[in-house]
Amino acid sequence: MGGKRPVAPLEAYELPAPPPLTTHAPLAHFSIDFHSVLGHGSFGVAHRAVDRLTGEALAVKVCAARVQERVDALRHEARLLELVRGNPHVIAMRGHGMIDEGRYGIFFEMAGGGELLDVLSKATGLLGEHLVRRLTSQLIDGLAHCHTRGVCHRDLKLENILLTSSGQLKIIDFGLAHLAGRPDAARPLLRGACGSRSYAAPEVLSFGGYDGFAADLWSCGVCVFTLLFGFFPLHEATPADWRFRALREAQLDGRSSVGCVLRWYDKRSHVSARAAQLVDAMLAIDPRRRPEAKEAAAHTWLCGEAEERRPCWEETVRCAEGGAPRRVASV
Questions:
Q1: Partners of residue 41 on adjacent β-strands
Q2: Taking the complete model, does pTM exceed 0.90, yes or no?
Q3: Where does the pLDDT of residue 31 fall: very low under 50, low under 70, confident under 90, or very high at 90 and above?
Q4: DSSP structure class, residue 312
Q5: What is the mean pLDDT of residues 10-26?
Q6: Which residues are catalytic?
Q7: Taking a C-beta distance cutoff of 8 angstroms, is the pair 147, 155 a contact?
């Protein structure tokens, strides 16, 4: 899914000033060696590169300068990356601009540990709650920082979360991000579905107005659920998906969304009560019931001591309407 990204003027919002730029050389002074291709996207090509002056490994998003729409899209992303710089769990931009007469690019720090989805897919089993807890803490810290700066991501997914070689988490790809204003202030609802169906909030899939910050928290909940249990809770969901209705009914009855999803797919798993509670909160069908990112960051699962894991439900019931979940790791 996609859509035209509105570019809001930065002066339209009273936002906290971003931290000063790092001492890295401006783009015009980079002396870059381009190496292998990392991947292709709607913007163009991503390359692995090295700054010859510093030896730093870089990732570079490159598009053809003659395609103005792509240049505008990268400039929009760079603009928002400047706003959210300064957090260790948001990818750091080193510079952006014309590389030569035919190419425009954004230079990023390199996160060489791979996509979090690939890490999960290649695991011989589940990652373990202790590791997921640490990753979740980093993810929500980065997301809360973006929201404090007025930026909602709108495409949060495991494919857009990288790890460094030391295991530090980095949120990447702000191509669909939007400058929405402060999370504690009134702001217009966003329009137009974007992101990926397996991660998108129900209000986003319905093509109605939605709050970008609340939609990010739903996507974050999907990421954490998938890390804990090894499969997507709502793989390739649709606006009229029966699973949204089932979750709404469960939540109105005071039942756990985590337990509900596991029952659909006849899954048996053990997590701590606090882990299930945080995922339940983020997967609230009513976006007004989801926590803000800074509230999620202060949740007892992330800030308190580890607790004993327990079954997520009392009995296993196979849902007649359900299908097989898409597995991304052995369960």
A1: 44
A2: no
A3: confident
A4: S
A5: 42
A6: 155
A7: no
Structure tokens at 278: 């945080």
As a whole number of Å, the CA-based R_g of the chain is 20
Does 244 map to a domain?
Answer: yes
Q: Domain check: are 86 and 214 in the same one?
A: no
Residue 189 makes CB contacts below 8 A (sequence gap 6+) with 209, 210, 211
Spatial separation of the C-alpha atoms in residues 69 and 71, rounded to whole Å: 5
Percentage with pLDDT > 90 across the chain: 68
Range of the structural domain that residue 65 is part of: 10-15+26-109
- Please write down the long-range contacts of 299-307, taking CB distance under 8 Å and 24 or more positions apart: 299/274, 300/274, 301/133, 301/136, 301/272, 301/274, 301/275, 301/277, 302/133, 302/136, 302/137, 302/140, 302/278, 304/274, 306/129, 306/130, 306/133, 306/272, 307/272, 307/273, 307/274
Tell me if 267 is assigned to a ligand binding site.
Answer: no
- What would the two tokens of residue 79 be? 């603009």
32 pLDDT band, cuts 50/70/90, is: confident
Statement to judge: residues 123 and 270 lie in one domain:
yes
Please spell the DSSP secondary structure of 33-58, one letter per residue.
EEEEEEEEETTEEEEEEEETTT--EE
Per-residue pLDDT tens over the stretch 126-155: 999 999 999 999 999 999 999 999 999 999
What are the tokens at 35?
A: 């190496």
Q: What is the CATH number of the domain that holds 266?
A: 1.10.510.10
Specify whether the CB–CB gap between 156 and 107 falls below 8 A.
no
Q: Tell me the per-residue pLDDT of 38-92, one tens digit each, with 9 for 90 and over.
A: 988 877 899 999 998 889 999 999 999 999 999 999 999 999 999 999 999 999 9
